[in-house]
Amino acid sequence: MSRLICVVLMVVISSVVSVNVFATTRVVKRKYITAYYNSKGELTRVDIDSNHNGRMDTVKYISKGRVYKVKRDANGDGRFDTYIFFEDGKVSMIKKDTNGDGKLDTYIYFRKGHLYKTEKDTNHDGRIDYVLVHKGHGLALEKIDTNHDGKFDTVNFYRHRRLYKCVQNGKVVLYGKNGLPLKIKDGKAHYVYKNGRLSKVEFKYRVIAYKDGKKSFEKIDTNHDGKFDLFVYYRNGTVYKVEKDTNYDGRIDAVETIAGNTRKLRVDKNHNGFFNITLTFKNGKLIQKEFFKKGCSLPYRIESKTKIMVDSNCDGKYEKIEKIRPDRIDILVDANHDGKFDCEYVYSPKHKLVEVLKDTNHDGKFDTFITYNGKECYTISRDSDFNGMVDLWKKYKDGKLVSVERDLNGDGKPDITY
Questions:
Q1: What is the DSSP letter of 9?
Q2: What is the rounded CA–CA span in Å between residue 401 and residue 126?
Q3: Shortest CA distance to 323 belongs to which of 311, 310, 344, 306?
Q4: Helix (H/G/I), strand (E/B), else coil: 367
Q5: Share in percent of the chain as helix, strand, coil (round to 5)
Q6: Contact of 69 with 84, CB cutoff 8 Å
Q7: Residue 107 DSSP class
Q8: Residues with Cβ < 8 Å from 412, sequence gap 6 or more?
Q9: 254-259/238-244 β-pairing
Q10: pLDDT tens, 184-243?
């Protein structure tokens, strides 16, 4: 019995000794490297003094012959600040403390050994404010929290290693292949660029086109019905023409052209597609009105401050001209449309008839002259033989003839009175 107990005791002691042999760790030290082995003789850790300053600055952790983690003291301050993780022998993640404050601020992620994403805390407040996302072998996305409020306010999109879109605080910028902006959207307007220069601005109810950095064209939806009704044309950045659809029927009915201090406004007053009035302004003051009718390329009536001309049959010859002066108003009339004025009416500034001149034989010379006293005829003078000299005089009073004088010998003086 005692022998049996001794045998059992020896077996247990032998078993314990065997287990302890496999559990112990073997350490191999060299000048700048220390290697650690497990009880199975497998390498599990390597400490390295890479800069030979007497302090280990790199530690590699190994499992089944593969490194699965590395930590480093990259700045040599005695604290580990870089951590590298591996999967299947390829880097899967890197963590860094870039400013040496003992807090991790940079995280780099890999997929199948390829760089996938980078996250940074650039101001070291404990929040990620800068992110890079890679696709393939190039940058695909960049997110930035510029004011460090915890929200990404700037996002840059890349294609073929080239920035093609930027979203910043609701504003979107699209870039061309040359790296210059193509279009900017800010919620209120779309800005379109060509070769890096502003080409067009699109608002909800307004579009502005640019050429060589200056406005060239503008269209506006003034009543917000979805149709543009005001068009502005620019030359060298200065307005030279404006078109309007004043009644919003889809047709232009007012066109204004500008040259220096002179403006001309053509108006389709009846909204039938025909411009029948042209107004001319100078220094902001109306100086002339022109009236047109269909089938007539020339104005049939022209009005200014000092003159009114009428060509009612549109033959290019004015049959009525009204001249306005401070002391009188003269109206010339071509009643038979032969191109010669055969009657002239003279009025006072208060539009009271003063005199009438007539060309009764249509030779282009006035031969009859009638004066008025108020509303009544006062005198009639006539060149009865059309030689250019008056030879007959008649006087009236209260509408009745009171005297007649004649020049019988053509000397321009009365010879007989009756």
A1: H
A2: 117
A3: 306
A4: coil
A5: 5, 50, 45
A6: yes
A7: E
A8: 389, 390, 391
A9: antiparallel
A10: 888 888 889 888 889 999 999 999 999 998 999 999 999 999 999 999 999 999 999 999
Counted residue by residue, the chain has a size of 418
Amino acid letter at 345?
Answer: Y
| Token duo for residue 289 | 């009105």
Q: What is the CA radius of gyration of the chain?
A: 52
- Nearest-angstrom CA–CA distance, 370 and 359: 12
- The one-character DSSP state at 23 is H
How many CA atoms lie within 13 Å of 121's alpha carbon, on the beta-carbon side? 17
Q: Is 334 exposed, middle or buried (0-12, 13-18, 19+ CB in 10 A)?
A: buried
Domain boundary assignment for the chain: 25-80
Confirm whether pTM is higher than 0.70. Answer: no
The CA-based dihedral angle spanning residues 348, 353, 357, 358, taken in that order and rounded to the nearest 10 degrees = 150
Query: Residue 73 in 3-state DSSP?
Result: coil
Q: What is the tens place of the pLDDT at every residue in 228-282?
A: 999 999 999 999 999 999 999 999 999 999 999 999 999 999 999 999 999 999 9
Helix (H, G, I), strand (E, B), or coil: what is residue 147? coil
Q: Any long-range contacts for 138-145 (C-beta under 8 Å, 24+ apart)?
A: none
The rounded distance, in Å, linking the Cα atoms of 97 and 267 is 75
